[in-house]
Amino acid sequence: MPEPVSLVDRLLLAGALTVLYAPSGLGKTEVALQLANAVANQTDFYGRTAGKSNVLYVDYEMGEQNFRRYGNRLGLRGMIRAEHDVPLLDLKPLIQAAIADGCQLVILDSYASLSNQTGHENAVNSNGVAELVLKPLADLAHQSGTAIVVLHHTNKGNVQYDGSQRIKALSDMMLKLTLNRRTRMLELNSDKSRYGVEPLSWDASGHPLLHGTQSEDASEHEDQRREWLLEQLRNGPCTVDDLEGEYQKVTGRSRKSLERDLSDTVNDGLVTRARVGRSNQFTLAATSMLA
């Protein structure tokens, strides 16, 4: 078999099934549309060169009118074909027809909408549903040399993708989109890759989730909380329960704030997270211990 071809340099490969996931409202649809625009017009995606191909975007989330308005706002152009609310049984023939017309990038928004069409209770968490939905897409990507990207949500804690372990097993690549509030950057990192993928980040200063949240005073308090957390973890691993009481006394903030601060330190590579029993245990990363 030939080596996979990069559709977007060091990020997106033709012939691979990729799951792109992020918390709701973070902007994964916008990122997916920017990817579509880069491929349709052979322009850069935040400094990464893209190949040129027709694109098929199958939308289950916005509807035709909202999708059109969104596309106009982003300045989409070129050979991007949008389809809406396609029945699951019609999806494979639709993709095959698009591939026959020269499409090398298919984007499906979203996995939850696809899985819920199966009629299974709690479909997102079902291994059988993941097999039913994703296995044909993976086979189609491998056999045709087409990049198929499925958008998905994170779980309630925004730690990893939502649902069944088979989602990760069946995909070739898992890309997680995160917003780094400290650096004001959006970051794409690979949670799983069978091929060479390099992290990518870009300026997110205008992101709606940052509006009104990053004054100099707020940033200073955030840095102080971060230093306090790192100091506690220098004494050994801790859970949220271990830190909560003292954190509230020192900062006056809630458990939710503590969880967000810990997640930010994990995203920045300062702290590692591991599941121990029913709790997440946080440990100072080796690089932080040397600081």
TrEMBL record:
Pfam family, one: AAA_25
SMART domains hit by this protein: AAA
Annotated ranges, domain AAA+ ATPase: 14-189
Sequence segments annotated as region (Disordered): 206-225
InterPro entries xref list: AAA+_ATPase, P-loop_NTPase
Protein name: AAA+ ATPase domain-containing protein
